Fold this sequence. Notes:
The chain is globular, with a radius of gyration of 26 Å. Among the domains are: 32-145, Serine Threonine Protein Phosphatase 5, Tetratricopeptide repeat; 147-287; 473-581, Serine Threonine Protein Phosphatase 5, Tetratricopeptide repeat (Alpha Horseshoe), CATH 1.25.40. By secondary structure, it is mostly helical. It has helices at residues 9-15, 48-59, 63-76, 81-94, 97-110, 121-131, 135-144, 150-165, 187-200, 203-214, 222-234, 238-251, 272-286, 293-306, 311-323, 327-335, 344-357, 361-374, 379-391, 395-407, 417-429, 433-446, 451-464, 468-481, 486-498, 502-515, 520-532, 536-548, 553-565.
Amino acid sequence: MVFSSAFKRVLYAILACYLHATYAFAADTDAHSPNKEVKPAPAEDLSFGGYLSGRFAEESGDSDKSIDFLKKSLAKNPDSKELNYNLYRAYLDAGDIAEAIKLSEKLVKMKVVEEGYEFPPELLAFIGAVKQNDFVQAKTYLALIPKNGFNSVLVPLVNAWVGYANKTLALPLDAKDIMPKSKIILSHFVLNAAYINELAGFIPQATSQYEQAGAEQRLDSTRMAEALINFYDRKHETEKRAKYIQQYEAVHSDIVVGEIKTTATTPLVTNPTEGIAEAFYSVSTLFHGVRPVNDEITTLKLALYLRPDLIPAQLLLGNSYDMKKAYPQALATYQAIPENSPYALQAKILIGYDKNEMGEKKEALDYMDRLIASNPQNLALLSAKGDLLRLNSDFASAVTAYNQAIGLIKKDNLSDWILYFSRGICFERLDKVEESEKDMKKALALNPDQPDVLNYLGYSWLVRNEHLKEAREMIERAYDARPEDAQIIDSMGYALYTEGDFESAKEYFERALERMPDEPTVNEHLGDTYFRLNRKVEAKYQWQRALDNKPDPKQKIDLEHKLEAGMEEVVKPKSAEAGKEKKTSSEAGSEPSL
């Protein structure tokens, strides 16, 4: 595990990603398209100047230049499959969905298919038909989409909406019929089935499915909660609505539900086009943080092309830009969320974080103070201010902000764990170990299986050579919950390292490094382990990599000492003592990972 002055993973996971979680299910990514006929033709017949310039511009990320070069080449070779296809890709990369749709219809006629691409021309042609409310043609295009990878999950869900639009739904829809094979129930699919069944008039089944989806306990439950509250509003179930919100907020650290001020009179989804937009958004949440971020951005833009007012998709799009560190685009996306939306407060908080990430630290804090001045009793805003102060290493001021937020809590709820955890991190950075442990234990009392807290406290104890058995057990529990989390993998390695099992520790550190190649502490841990295994040349290489990746000042001194003189003959690396300057599982990176 790694400690540092940045605490961003849980920050975004809680405040930016209430709507989204990555589920542990495996899509069939190895299946091949059954209708594959022609790959894009080789480029022998192309206008090479324009073609190569277009490809270069595309690879360098300049979509406008790429489009310009490719259009000029295409004017000379209008029937070139390669040029048409590359221009189609360039339009998608630029977010110009309308132009991509125009070319997609041409490419479908050309029977151009590229194996493995998540946005084949058939998919965009399908989107175009849906936009025109031509669901008969949409069904034809849908049947042509290769059913692999992301689309193996998307197509069955979208097909249910097309079936409803074409009036072929004779019986209530069972969510299991549209859900990918998984060990868990995917609540977004249950929610889509509820939408469809309600619109089709199967009200008892819809009611059951809304309530099943609304009972979701994972972080991405906001949309399900919003839908169930909307349903209760329209059925005038006032008592059920109030009871559900109370139960929900006791479990979830959620901003949006508390911001639902008005009573709904219309469903969240009113027609098949809106439903298909919802389907694209729903499947995006399942793969959030797993797919390449540019693919995620394209998927969400497709959802918003079909339904521009789909605010959860807009919020997730902003989060995707954050993952890409494209903060100006994220900022603009959040700023476009309407003031009267229940998502507005969450967007405003994220605007503050993005200002901070862009280096506008004073403006970010001033902005947050202005929000607090207009709503001084808002726990989420006070907590967000604490987060900003902590991100900027002003731990004492952060504690003050967290104290104000915690002071507003009238009754402990599971959802309050994050406040105690955050304040506990600040106490540790201030060398107030007793206060830190008290808050960490309070966080675990509220949420006993929270992996970040287990990992943080367990690693802290290892660093201080305290409660070693309990520390190891905590880290193992965190690892069981999130075995692919690089920070927790590193902690497992460190636990083995402190026990002298260097060979086993090496395996964990190498796995962690695959996921976080530029993280100084993981590089240092692996270097220390190589040194213990008498692989001293490799040890120096890892230490140098750690030094090259901007370690904190104390760690920098330790690394320079190791590069010059090697390591003292002790089990623990000297820099392990800098626990409060290293990152936690909750702190790595500047973007959310769900």
